[in-house]
Here is the input.
Amino acid sequence: MAGQETRVTKISNLKEHLSHHGESCLVQIHGPELGKKYVLSEAELSLGREEGNTIVIDLDNVSRRHAVVSCKDGKYFIKDQNSTNGTYLNDEEIRDTQPLRSGDLVKVGGAIFKFLSGDKIESLYHEEIYTLTICDGLTGVHNKRYFLEFLEREMGRCHRYQRALSLIMFDIDHFKSINDTNGHLAGDYVLRELAQLIKPRIRREECFARYGGEEFAIVQPEAGTDNTRKFAEKVRKLVEDHRFSFEGKDISVTISLGVSDLTGDMTEPLQFIKVADQNLYKAKKTGRNRVVG
Here is the structure.
């Protein structure tokens, strides 16, 4: 939890650096300068790894001069500068100059920026900062901090009223191999695609979060043991049957899942998580692409 609190404090402190000039900006929602706001006040600005760029991104998968954002007649455009790993606009690789619209996501190597524009840019920025405190910037689902707080709250409620509570922990099989074979950009794509595939199946009263790396969690209050295991199997099959395709190349993706139910002796979230994680480990040891628990 301490690391998460430090992350939130870091994001909050960035508010002190707000500029009240300009009507467009880029906000880093994933990467080394999480939450930092770059006001687009120049006719042209560059993004890249080397010093001298307007926005310096200190990551190995970012080219020295990676991309350029330019302004013409009050509208902003982005263009890749023949970078090694490409520039992506809303998960599509840029082949030529593309216009930017408020809410667009720009991916440069391992960094992701959100383009904000309009009369309410300050409120949009503050909304984005709040979102970063509870959501994972890469996948768009809740983050570990939010998940732990949600789980602790639901454990207390379900103990108090003697209600059922179930937890699913899962991760992507052979994820390191996906990265090693296809590159980290493909790995990021798989994480985002998987999260967005599952997210619509999550009910309002449930929690779906990225726990860390390639591991995710789903909390299901009052679903019941049988229903949770049936749901876990549906999720497993959903991922197995989905076509993951990055830059024209199909990537085989499966997940292993561990399920646990709240018991009377579980008073801390980590006790609950440990049981689900142990079942996840069993799922991986017994062949992967299966549900245990």
Summary: The longest strand covers residues 165-172. The first helix runs from residue 2 to 13.
